[in-house]
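I am still getting used to backbone structure tokens and would like to learn alongside you. Label the sequence line and the structure token line clearly, so we can match residues to local backbone shapes. Go ahead whenever you are ready, and we will take it from there:
>
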Amino acid sequence: MSKVITAYTKEIDDSGAAVSNILWQLEPARPRRTNSLGLPTLHPPFTSGGGYQAVCEALPFEIVGTTTLGASTEAATDLEILTLSVLTSDDVEFAPVLTASLQSEQEGAIGAACAQGLQKLGERPPLVLAYAPLLANVGVERLVRILDMALDGAPLFCTLTSDPNLDFRGSPILFNVAASMD
């Protein structure tokens, strides 16, 4: 059985309060299942304010997500918010991986990351969640096409990062405490 638990915080600069808010909201959902994965969406300033890093360090599972211009949960909607959905399951495994930079070469980087994820799972996944950075020189349709080929047609859900800058300089992919721009 799988379950989704969602928490949020609006604490950008107070990392202790951000962690407390998230953990307090996740606590009623304990015990979590055998496998868990955190999927955050957050306003870009959270990546530099310390709150996001502190939340990652406080959680006992991996995190993969994106920045966004706004997010919502049942309890809150805002522009300046960090939301965290936790997928937890006894019968679903998660194999998060991060590609090398996609700025100059996409096929090799995506192929290597897909191979790494497939090796962790040992079989073709029933669903792949992909988070792509906004790149001025690479269209998302190209990334999706490469992913589709590398995954041999496995079902794919893909989303893009976003930020308020026209040059995409503040829209990283989030992988645990790291924030990758490309």
Summary: The longest strand covers residues 2-9. The beta strands are 2-9, 35-42, 62-67, 71-72, 77-78, 82-89, 128-132, 156-160, 173-175, 178-180. Helices lie at 15-26, 46-49, 51-58, 107-121, 140-150.
